[in-house]
Amino acid sequence: MPHLRSLSSRISVLALAVLPLILFAVTGCGKTDSSSPEAAASTDQPQEVPEEKRVPEQLKTIPALVATGKSEEALTTLASWIGEHPQDPRGYTLRAGVYTQNGKRDAAVADLNKAVELAPKDADILHSRGLFFLMHGPQKSARTDFEQSLKLDPKQHEAANHLGLIKLSVGEFASSVKDFDVAVANNPNNHSYYNNRGLAHWRAGNTDLARADFDAALKVKPQDANALSNRGQLSLQQKKFEEAVSDFTSAIAIDPYNMAHYRFRHAAYLKLGRLVDAENNGRHIVWLRKLFQLQDEIRKQPDNNRLLVQLGQHFAEEHDDVMALKVFNELLKKSPNELPALIGRAQVQMRKQEFQQVVNDCNAVLQVDPTSFDALSLRGDAWFQLRKYDEAIADFEASQRFDRQVSDAYYLRSQQRATAGDQAGADADLAKSKLMAPKLQTADAVE
After folding, report:
1. Residue 303, helix vs strand vs coil
2. pLDDT tens digits, residue range 254-295?
3. How far apart are the first and last CA of the chain?
4. How many domains does the chain divide into?
5. How far apart are CA 109 and CA 142, in angstroms?
6. What DSSP letter does each residue of 343-396 carry, written as one string?
7. Cβ contact 367:339 at 8 Å
8. Is 370 exposed, middle or buried (0-12, 13-18, 19+ CB in 10 A)?
9. Which end of the chain is more exposed for a tag (fewer CB within 10 A), N or C?
């Protein structure tokens, strides 16, 4: 059987991600592929929307207002429009979406109930209310709404998909397959529908059909991490360990912060006897645990700069330079003199060979703390890469560094001085270089 996260939890997260979008889309742009948070990337062809379901011209700004944090303005606009059109369900469904975004659940369900009362035979509105109940409960009400939506419109693939997920979560596998059949038949370009049906087949013990559906999902969307992981788990169960490793590795490339992918790959590595790979994989699992711990702490203390610095350093430790820089940049926007963040950003920039940026950040640190070893040392390394050996050596001396790079800096400056006709200076630098690295052969001092 597939080893899955709690399906009911998965459904709740799914509904949370898509419900406001559905409430907006139902009254505006035809049926939205709401099966996953990737709904906006659906390959469905645009459908002709009946006039009575189109978003009124005065309300077309509502989604943009909500997206930019202007919910109160959106609610004011909607209240005015509903006052003028109290029998039109479109205003209520849109307002329910805004209320849902703002966590006003009672107000949202009241508006959805009103919309259903005004349009009891509108399959899309029933589906929207079903999604709300799927997220907030009761699940029984969600199921009823999805079933009623399908009675009104047997081709309502979104309702069929969500009904199938509910049945899958309570063990009604054969029945859920039938619902996913409806979803696939009416929207064959939705990768999630194939993936969900594959899970239902697997739970029902039909592994060949399950694999075929996972393959179909990946044909529609090769970057579907869920389908890759599910197919990998199936391969793991069937002792196809190399195939499992391949799928989990692909899933990780797409969804690198999902610990489940690493855990399953770890099991496959062990089955193959690839102990070094398993150890490295396990090390990353430990790194992810620490990441999630830090994120939890930051959620509780969002203004704690120390935790934010640790988060940036944690990403840098894994060489995730994009995320590390994102964290450091955001922190430095609000706290420009946060010295550990400046050092952290400089370290990442050093790895990215952005040497002038390293110098700039270290300069900012040294204005506040002129004796900072990290800033002097990093700036020295950056000057070295920029071939400014006077500046590099000055920083190395100030930080009291004595290593191969310092020796190389003296050697290279000796060459510069010799070329410039300063033989005494060149000899002095060469002597210092040899003193630091007695075994260093000047002919290959710099590799």
Report:
1. coil
2. 999 999 999 999 999 999 999 999 999 999 999 999 999 999
3. 56
4. 3
5. 12
6. HHHHHHHHHTT-HHHHHHHHHHHHHH-TT-HHHHHHHHHHHHHTT-HHHHHHHH
7. no
8. exposed
9. C
pTM of the predicted structure, to 2 decimals: 0.75
* 136-140, long-range: CB < 8 A, 24+ apart: 136/105, 136/109, 139/8, 139/166
211 lies in some domain: no
Residues of the domain holding 417:
402-447
Tens of pLDDT along 359-411?
Answer: 999 999 999 999 999 999 999 999 999 999 999 999 999 999 988 999 999 99
Please answer whether residues 177 and 201 qualify as being in contact, where contact means their C-beta atoms are separated by less than 8 angstroms.
yes
Apex 229 CA angle, 223 and 234, nearest 5: 130
| Residues whose CB is less than 8 angstroms from the CB of residue 103 and which lie 6 or more positions away in sequence, other chains included | none
Q: How far apart are CA 117 and CA 110, in angstroms?
A: 10
Q: Using N-to-C axis directions, what is the helix angle for 157-169 and 139-152, rounded to 10°?
A: 150
Query: Quick one: 74 and 45 in the same domain?
Result: yes
Q: How far is CA 288 from the centre of its chain?
A: 13
User: What CATH number is given to the structural domain containing 80?
Assistant: 1.25.40.10
